Amino acid sequence: MRVFLNDFEVNSADNRVYLDGEIAGLEMPSIRSSRGNRSGQPGSYFGAQIPDSRLITLNGHIFSSDVATGLQRRRDLQAALPLYPDQIEMRIIDDDGRAYIIFCQVMDFKAPRQRQPFKHPFKIELEAPDSVIYDDTAGTSLTATIQKAVAGGMLFSASTPTFGVSTRFTAGMPNTTVDNTSDIVLYPTITITGKTTNPAITNLTTGEKFYMTGYAVDGSAVTVIKTSPFLHTVTLNGDNVFGNVPLDSEWPALVPGLNEFLFESDSSTDATSALLEWRPGFAGI
User: Fold this and answer.
1) How far is 54 from 240, CA to CA, in rounded Å?
2) Tens of pLDDT along 44-93?
3) Among 85, 98, 121, 212, which residue's CB has the most CB atoms within a 10 Å radius?
4) HSE (side-chain half, CA atoms, 13 Å) at 189
């Protein structure tokens, strides 16, 4: 197994950095449960169960054949552990070739100095507020284009030599269906490129509807909606426009299986599609 922290490999003969034994925290995270004892009755009750944050522990050693190299590797390892708001991208290439990515924050780093200058033990404690382990085998997100639904059937116009009208048939454009092949709920990023007026995006499978009010932008606009509960943001060309999101607006998720999406806006000249991006994920590996 190869393990990287922000592109610094921590299990590598080239870096002379090696992990010892097990890596704790790659299995399913702890589960938080709404539960309690049944008052005056036998047994207990359960409500919602949700995953807790993911706690990861890495133990290892840095080896070197000279003092300067060993000390430089210590500095390199520490530099791969930035503090919030920067994230640590922990990338894993497993023994079967599959690749994963986990977004973490450093919680603790121990690397006591030894009398032996050619061997440096270390312990790294990481916490991933989003416990999902994302599939990075493809190296990029999966994407789907959500088209505005257009009714099909017979269309009429007012210029024809026959009876004052012309007719033609159109197949229309149905709602877009997106398949989440993971067995857990995922939260996509939605991008609308171009002119849009009060956009609304609904996952008809779950009933969750995101919408904006008082929002009208021209053709140069790029509107990005991040639905992750760990990072609810809406930006226009990189600037915050969260003020245009009403309090009752929801954040559409991708549930396992097929998800049907509806894209709407207030003007017929608006952009006709939005881009949905997500990564498949796992509760544990």
Assistant:
1) 29
2) 999 888 999 999 999 999 999 999 999 999 999 999 999 999 999 999 99
3) 212
4) 17
pLDDT value for 155: 56
Question: Which pLDDT value is given to residue 88?
Answer: 97
d(CA 75, CA 69) in angstroms, rounded, equals 10
Instruction: With H, G, I as helix, E, B as strand and everything else as coil, classify residue 107.
Output: strand
SS3 of 195, please?
A: coil
With the C-alpha atoms ordered 78, 79, 84, 86, is the resulting torsion angle positive or negative? negative
Q: Measured in whole angstroms, how far is the alpha carbon of residue 115 from the centre of its chain?
A: 44
Q: Is pLDDT at 172 greater than 60 in this prediction?
A: no
Contacts (Cβ under 8 Å, ≥6 apart) of 201: 146, 190, 209, 210, 211, 225, 252, 261, 262, 263, 264, 274
Percent of the chain with pLDDT strictly greater than 70: 92
Tokens of 218: 């021209």
Structure tokens at 225: 């909606």
